[in-house]
Amino acid sequence: MREVFSALMKLQQVDCRLHELNMIKGDLPQRVETLKADIQALRHQKEELESQIEALLKQQQFGRDETVLRREKLKKYQTQLYQVKNNREYDAITAETEVAEKEIEALELGELEIEDQLQAVRARHEALQPRIQETEAQWQDAQEVLEKTLAVTRDEEQVLAQKREEILRGLSRPMISTYDRIRQGRGGVALALLKEGACSECSSRIPPQRGLEIRQMDKMYLCEVCGRIMIWSPETEKICHPK
User: Fold this and answer.
1) pLDDT score recorded for residue 209
2) What is the pLDDT at residue 243?
3) Has this prediction a pTM greater than 0.70?
4) Phi, psi at 192, each rounded to 5°
5) Under a CB-based contact definition with an 8 Å cutoff, are residues 221 and 214 in contact?
6) Phi/psi at 229 (5° precision)
7) For residue range 104-118, what is the model confidence (pLDDT) as tens digits?
8) Mind listing the pLDDT tens digit for each residue in 172-214?
9) In sequence order, what are the residues at sequence separation of 6 or more whose Cβ sits closer than 8 angstroms to the Cβ of residue 7?
């Protein structure tokens, strides 16, 4: 059992160092991913606005083509007015003329409305490009900083990860599960030293009889207050702490 506790101590040290290396990166990985997502969202907005512009332009051209047709009809009706032979024909052509004029008026009004929409959408589209460029520049800067940071920590992380795997191979699955569960629930520290009759992590007093049992190192005991695995290691001053 002493070998198990020794392995747990080494495992805790490795995990603390891995945590420290992750802290060196800070929030850079998350920032890089956030900026990347922002760029994708902005590009998607740009594509949607471009689709809107395309649709409005088609609608605008359709309206202009229809206006041309209506004007040709109106011109035809106006010419026919001079060729009518009776009042009935005159009234019919006049009615058709009025309809054509109203249709032209509605088409021209619609064109103005479409032009207003186009200006608004184009303005939004133009405003997006600087935002995209700025966000891309921020992403590039963050990515470069992250790459430099990773270059510093990568080699040590690989060595530590390999060392961790070697330690884990010497521990049982239940022990690993217990260690990981406590570590995750206690700020990254699963172990506690028996120091001067107390738990080194929460400072709670350990009963003398329990202290003797912990010193024997032949069974796993948990601190009754903080729940950490109690270790007796006179040569160890303190448990490492993730910063």
Assistant:
1) 93
2) 58
3) no
4) -140, 145
5) yes
6) -75, 120
7) 999 999 999 999 999
8) 999 999 999 999 999 899 999 999 899 999 999 999 999 999 9
9) 167, 170, 171
DSSP-assigned letter for residue 1: -
Please state, rounded to an integer, the average pLDDT across all residues of the chain: 91
Q: What is the DSSP string of 138-202?
A: HHHHHHHHHHHHHHHHHHHHHHHHHHHHHHHHTS-HHHHHHHHHHHHHTTT--EEEEETTEETTT
CB count in 10 Å sphere of residue 237: 9
For residue 17, the surrounding DSSP H or E stretch is helix 2-25
What is the strand order of the sheet 229-231 is part of? 198-199, 191-195, 229-231
The residues pairing with 231 across neighbouring beta strands, listed in sequence order, are 193
Q: Which two tokens stand for residue 74?
A: 């109106």
Give me the DSSP letters along 44-86.
HHHHHHHHHHHHHHHHHHHHHHHHHHHHHHHHHHHHHGGG--S
56 pLDDT higher than 70: yes
Report the distance separating Cα 243 and Cα 128, nearest Å: 40
Average pLDDT in the 44-55 region? 96
Counting every residue written for the chain, the total comes to 243
Residue 213, H or E segment: helix 208-216
Amino acid at 140: Q
Backbone angles phi, psi at 24, to 5 degrees: -60, -35
Question: Cα(145)–Cα(138) distance, rounded to whole angstroms?
Answer: 11
What value, to the nearest 5°, has the Cα angle with vertex 67 and ends 66 and 73? 90
* Residue 228 exposed, middle or buried by CB count within 10 Å (0-12, 13-18, 19+): buried
